[in-house]
Amino acid sequence: MYKPADAKGRAQNVPVPVKPALADKNTKEGLEAFARYWYALLNYGFETGNLSPIKSVTGASCAMCGKIFPGVVKWNSSGRWVEGAVINVQAAQSKFVAVLPGQFQVVIQSEQEAGTLRNADGSVGQTVAPSGVLGDLMIAEYVKGKWHALNVDRLGG
To answer: Quick check: helix, strand or coil at residue 39?
Structure first.
């Protein structure tokens, strides 16, 4: 049974997010569903330290990944864990017009909840303040029957 992280320990039995069937459709709605799924995989990475699922659908040159992934690895190693800091996607919108051949943009509006980065003994190593509204831009391509995020980056920052 799933148990979220708390002051006493890391999350347990965290289910890997299931990709909705819509997220494999080469449509505006499919791209938007894929973007939401991508953030579900990011939250899974925060909780578990396992970035394999998100890396399997993300390009190596992802700007946001280069900023976030090292912290995910750090705070899920040596007995440490992440409590909270969940990213909630409010909107994912695309005009579904190719910006380059085969590449499409989707704008994501989200907020990150407050969180605590815990040391191995449960003490507070660092706190994460709630973010307020954030805007991200994803560039994705549809290859071999599925979406792949080439890049994700924060707008205006």
So the answer is: helix
The secondary structure element, H or E, covering residue 36 is helix 28-48
Q: In order of start, what are the domains of the chain with their CATH numbers?
A: 23-154 (3.10.450)
Average pLDDT, the chain: 96
State which H helix or E strand residue 78 sits in: none
How far apart, in Å, do the first and last CA atoms of the chain sit? Answer: 38
Q: What percent of the chain has pLDDT over 70?
A: 99
- C-alpha dist (Å) from residue 63 to 3, 120, 157: 31, 29, 12
Give the number of C-alpha atoms closer than 13 A to the C-alpha of residue 36, restricted to the C-beta side.
20
- Number of Cβ atoms within 10 Å of the Cβ of 1: 4
pLDDT grade for 156, boundaries at 50, 70 and 90: confident
Burial of 155 (0-12, 13-18, 19+ CB in 10 A): exposed
Strands (E), the chain: 81-84, 87-93, 98-100, 103-112, 115-118, 124-128, 133-143, 146-154
Round to whole Å and give the CA distance between 1 and 7: 18
Residue 125 is given by DSSP the state: E
